[in-house]
Each structure stands twice: as C-alpha cells, then as structure tokens.
## 1
Amino acid sequence: MNPGELVPAMSGRAWRVPPRSLVEVIDVEGSQTGDVFAVPTDDLEDGLSNGRTFDYGESIRLTTGSVLYSRRSRPLLTIVEDEVGTHDFLWAPCSQEMYEIGYGVTEPHPNCLDNLTASLGGFGVPAATVTIAFNVFMNVAVGQDGGLAILPPATAAGQSVTFRTERELLVAVTACAATTANGGAAKPLRVRITEGAGSPTQGRA
Amino acid sequence: MNPGELVPAMSGRAWRVPPRSLVEVIDVEGSQTGDVFAVPTDDLEDGLSNGRTFDYGESIRLTTGSVLYSRRSRPLLTIVEDEVGTHDFLWAPCSQEMYEIGYGVTEPHPNCLDNLTASLGGFGVPAATVTIAFNVFMNVAVGQDGGLAILPPATAAGQSVTFRTERELLVAVTACAATTANGGAAKPLRVRITEGAGSPTQGRA
C-alpha cells in the first residue's frame, strides 16, 4: 500500500494532484490538526473559500458528502470519507501575527499561513490567494451566542479524512504549528494521494 | 446634517476614507441587507477576512465593539454603534454563479460580488482581493448542528450600523441584489461618511 508522505510537525507540503484523485490526511499520533488549502491549476487566484462552501452547503459543519468550493464557486474538493467528523472552516490559518497578537510571542514562530504560502509559492500561487484554510481535525465549539471555543482534537492515532479532487489542483497540507489546538504538542500528519482513484459518485450525500 | 449618499437597489459604491472616520450604513426602507468590504490603501491585497475576525474576536456574532480584521491581521473597521445587532460574516457575497447554482438563473443577474469588485476596481483593487464581505443586517440563524438558515432582516426603516475606520481604507458598500435575504424585494441603502469624527476610544468593548 502507498505509505504516503510525512508532513513533519510545524511544516507544510504541497502537491499537484490530478482530477478524481483521493487525498487522505492521516493523524499519525492523534489529537493533531492540519490546514488544507487547494487552488485549481487553471486559475491560481481561485482559492478555497469558506463563504462559498457555506453558501452552497448551508452548514458550517462539514463531513462526508460536503463539497469545498472556490472563491469563484467551483467545486474543488469533496469529503468522501471521514473517520473523525470534527473539522473547522471558521478560523484562519495560524500566522506570525496571530502568535504575536493572541499569545504575546515576540520571536519568529513556525505557522500554517507561511507554511501554506511557501509550499504553494513553489508552484507559483500568489500569497494573497491564501485567505483561509480548511482545518482538519480542529475541534471548535460554537455557542448559542456565536462564541467560539477551541477544544482538543477528537482524533485517535491513525484516523483520517479523505478528499476527492474535483479538478486538477494544487493541494497544500500543514501539520499545525500551534500547541493549543493540538492537545498540547505539535505533531506530524501523513498525506496519502492516490491518483485517479476517486469515483465521481463517491461522497455524494 | 450630512445626508450621506444613496446606494441604489442592486448596486454598489466605494469611497476612499481617512483613518478615524465614521461610516454609517442606513437601511432606508427597512429589511434590506448590504455587503461591506474594506481594504487598506497601503496594500490592496490585504482585504477584509472573516477568519481573522473570528480568530481575534472568538465569535461569529459581531456587533458594537467588534473589530473587523484584514487577511494580514490588521484592524480595518470597528463597529462603534449598532441599532440592529444582526449581521453575518459567514456567507460570501451573492454572485452570478450563486444565482445560477442556487436559484437556476440563466440570464445575467446584478450581484454583490460584481458590484464590489467593479466599485473597488476603480481604485485599483484586484478582483481576487474580494473573497468575502461583512453582510450588514443579514439575519442568519445557526442551528446546533451547524445548519444555516437565512431569515428576513430585522431592521426597521432608518436603522443603521456605524463603523470607525482604523486606517486609511477603500470601503465598498452594496445594496444586496438578492430578494430572498431582503424580505422579498431589493431596496437601496444610504451611506453617511463623517471624516475624522471617530474617537479612538469609541466602541471598545
């Protein structure tokens, strides 16, 4: 079996992925979140959009069957298998500014925004395209008053979520560099890409 | 008193606004939503971000005291007065594709995305900067399961929400072109800008 590729703790990687492929993101040790971003190869400014995804899915909870849309309303990824069921599309990727403003960090800190933009930048994606990311395994409680609370991820070691690519994409995945959202320590993820293995009918809710 | 400027039904306008100014958006007839987008004049790719705003405010409900942040984590707008209290930052601006996918429209339809990008384009803002907008008066219910439902706006005629600019901005406002979110008919809004009248301490929660 294709073992996939490791995304070391606090880092990010990106791949060019053909249409109808499967991208499985595996939480190797458990309780680790990651950021997933995608952009079609035919328009490097048409990145993933939480607003468009909420528009068409009419929900902020995304799991098997959910389609993730681009800014220009094109389907990019469909969740075809989800062993966990808790993901977040509200929070922006952690960034240097977030560590400074939110946690008082003064030194450079590894962060998902820079890891996404650096890995996608290698394929020519402008940094400004990355405005948001789909936060796999991130466990966010939304209160009745709209308040947000970050809880420890509910993933056990080896659990995964799998996406089907709906067109040719550049897909980036980070192992989130924060410790608060990851049960106290930043850990790796593993990504297994199986080209052309996604059935068009998989994951249709 | 400064009467402000009308934003006719289904249209959009944009202004260059100095720091510490007040931007009041008035629902002239009642039950009408609008999209507000802002970008700092010193970086036309650093647009408004719902994810960053949720990051720092830790809530999806924004009202008096809430700060709206840019993609690069800079404060752009602070809500300093809010006569309504129901706004949305989850849904993306209505677009031609949304009318086609969501409502089966086949002809060109006026839409907030094109109205935002056209009005800001006059100031040189790249269309790709507009990924989301703050939807004033848009009344969205979020279910316990994360499901989203659009309800009629709760605004009475003449009610308003007022923002303070936290730096020099280009601010665009549309009167939303959809009818579903606007109580059955698209109506105008009015925008009153008072340059330099915003106190730095106003609106601090």
## 2
Amino acid sequence: MDDGGRVLATQRDDHGVKSVAQGGYPAELAALRHQFGHLPAIAAGMVGSSLGWQDAGYVGAPAELATLAGALTRIEGADFAIVPGVSLAEGHRADVMRGEEVQVLGANLAGLAPRTAIYCQPGTHTKWITVEDGRLTDFTTMMTGEIFALLRDHSILAEMMRGAVADGPLFREGLLRATSAQSILSELFGVRAAVLLGRLSRDDAAAMLSGLLIGSDVVARQIADETIYILADPALGSLYAAAVETLGGHATLIDSHAAFVAGIHHIWELQR
Amino acid sequence: MDDGGRVLATQRDDHGVKSVAQGGYPAELAALRHQFGHLPAIAAGMVGSSLGWQDAGYVGAPAELATLAGALTRIEGADFAIVPGVSLAEGHRADVMRGEEVQVLGANLAGLAPRTAIYCQPGTHTKWITVEDGRLTDFTTMMTGEIFALLRDHSILAEMMRGAVADGPLFREGLLRATSAQSILSELFGVRAAVLLGRLSRDDAAAMLSGLLIGSDVVARQIADETIYILADPALGSLYAAAVETLGGHATLIDSHAAFVAGIHHIWELQR
C-alpha cells in the first residue's frame, strides 16, 4: 500500500498457519520482500497465534481499531508488526478471534456497513460479530464449517458426501429442517438413514447436510428483520445469504478484501 | 444356548463390521463352530448390513419379535440366519437400527423394564427407543458418540482432548450448559476458547465436551419425570444416567447381555 492506503499490489497464497512450519515465518516474509522490496510490514490473523510466528495475545472486547493499534507485537529486527486478536470472557462465555476484527472494524470505518451492524464471517469457525459505532462489542464463534468437514472427511456419512454443495432445493430443505429440528445430532444421522432407505439421493446428501448445519448456525441468532453483513468468498457467502433470507433476515455481501485493507491501513496510520 | 434359552457359553471379541473384510464372515462362523461345535446360528446387528455378510433388510416400525422372526435372512448352506433391522419413515423423519431392536424387545419380554418403556442405548449412534406392550413403535438416533470421537481425533480441539472423561464437576457443568446453550456449535468452540484464555484446564476439556454433547442429546428428549432404561456398558451408561437425572428424569441401568439373550432366543423359538 502507499501512504494513502491505496493498494499497489496484492498477492494471495495458501501459506496459512497449517502449512508454514514454526520457525518458517521469517523466510516467508523475506520471500515477500524479495518480490516487493524491503517495506515495513504488518499482519493479522493466525500468524499471531501460538502456532504462528509469535503469540500476539488478545485485547478484550469491546475493542476498536485504536485498541488494536495500541497493542501491536513488534518483531525486533524484522520491521514487522502483528495485530492482536480479540477475546471475550463474560460469565460462562469464552471466545476468541484473530484477523476477523481487522475486517469488521475496517468495514465499519470504510462505510461498507452502517456504524452499528451485525457481521457474519462464515468459514471453518464462523464468526458472528456486533460492531457499534466503531467498537467491536460482542461476538460468537460457531464450529459450523469444521463440523461439516469432519463429517465429510471422517464420519460414517463420508461415503455419501461426494455430491456438490450449492444453493438449491435440497440445501433449502436442510435449512428448513434445521429450524424445526429437535436436535442437529438426530438430523445428521437422519441424512444417512434417508439415503439407506432410498428417500434421498446419495448425490444430494452433501447439500442437505450443508443446509442443516448452516441453518442450525443461523437459526441460533436473532436475525428476524435484521440485516446481516456477510464477509466471505462468493460461494460460501451465497449459502449464508440464502440461509439468512430464508430464516427471516436480510443479507448483504460486502467486499472482505476492501474491508481488511481499510482496517489494516488505519491501524498502520495510528501506530506510526 | 440350550433349547430353554439358557446360556452355556459366551464369547466376546472385537471382530465387528469395521474389522472383518467383506467375504470374511463364513470363516468367522467356521472358527466359532470349530470351538463350540456345529450348531445352528443366528445373528443380529451390522452383520446384516450392506457392509456385513449379507444385507438382511429392515422391517418397518412398529415391529415386534414376531415381525423380526418372520423376516429372517437365511444363508443357504451355512445353517445361519440374520435378523433384519428396523426402519422408520414418517413424514420428514427417516431412521434405521440394527441389533438394538433385539435388545429392547428382549428386555421387554424378559421383564427387565415395564411393558411400555423408553430405552436409551448410548454409543457411537445413540438410540432412543419407545416400546409399547412388546412393540417397538418409535425411535431416534443421535450422532452423539461419533461427533465426540470426530472432535477428539480430528478437530482443532483434538490436542485438548487427552484428559479422562468421567462423571464429575466439569462433566456436570457441560450438561447444564447444554440445556441453556443457544447452539452446540458455539459451545464446542467455547471449550477451546476457555482453554486458550486460561479459564478451563486442558485436562478438563474432554469431560466438559462430553457433558455438552451428552447433555445436548438428552435435553432434546422429553424426559421430565420419565424413567429411562439404559442399555450400555457401565462407563458410558453411568454418564447417560447422570445426564438423565440432572435433566429431571430417572435412570435405570439394565443388563444388555440378558436383554439380547432373551430377545434372540425368542426369535429362534418363533422361527423353528
């Protein structure tokens, strides 16, 4: 980025916390600098976890961009800073995030959503985040994507999960069943039984299961007549948007890249 | 067994459907006959699934012991019969069982529970079964044990799941949280966050998670003031009994071996 926050070059790769060995981060940064020149650098997300370059800790919610900028972890000699995550500890509730805080506070700053808004960031660990006037005040993490992946890769349902997942009649049926289900634990086995009894095509099981899990995730929220601002890639974003609309809310997809850029640039400005 | 249903010898092994290759069943039976003599044989459970010796099909609920005895699959030349499973297909609900039907109808016949009773058979796929006057009328399968195993073996929680699971304060806390939780999907991640934030000992995470899942399973039932007849090994049976009692029901552990013997002997008598 230039000093004004304009993006001069973007690069995406899959060198995430699961694929970079501990101790491998300085070499990753060196490779980026070899490509783009020796610029100061700032990062957010799992690079700041105990599995990443260095544990950057958490700041407690409520948090704003200035809170994050005031708690950066600086890596000596590397001209590199890591943004802390945000934690929540309130009564019985405990939750953490890393990286999503920069996106939602950036979206808020850039006006991509109203000053007070509910965000949803679907993924392995889906985040539901409330931002009020520039402050991240509350959030909940749902293990939706990870449970789907566990069922697809390792469960008794695995052999039935080779079909594509897309918005369609079976995904919608899964959404609706999730709203009336006694328990997701019985609905999951019901998908298997329906295939064994010839009541559900094997090719449709994955879409049904996705609908059940995403429906179970969304229905746990109070979303009636609320607008939910969704930050996700288009495929997963559209599934969550369908779920939100089906369950009585309104969904707006926002540009997660623009949101992150706005947030991280503002943190950079604040810490200079 | 002798003709009167008295057990003369019992043998347990771990040669289940996951460990016996398809095509390996005749050799398994031959090995048993080498040991016990060439007796007629009858079996129930996953040996009658499409992954077992031969698919023995299902009879629809409601089913009684005579229904099962009238639908045996006989393996030609092997002097061997397999009891069918029971299926349920009602509106949107689909469910199947194999093996549990012999246990609960046997328990009913042997007077191990009242003529009309609710049974719980905890396990990888926990069954909740209603028997009314000797007829298995309704049932629901919960994927409780399998989800626990997936989380323990393959999830982001795996590294925190090495502690023992037993009835105790943390298991009980998990049970209670399950009753008030918005969603089990958020509670699961909450266990990880609580460990990361130092609010829960790493050694206690497995017990808490077990309480959350078993609590989520039991609370989906209407068990207030009901007596639940539990068929399980003592360790898992005592966890479910604690859950039932904590959530307002009464639990009675019954002898699953005696129940199976009574059921399978009666089927044998009926088909002679």
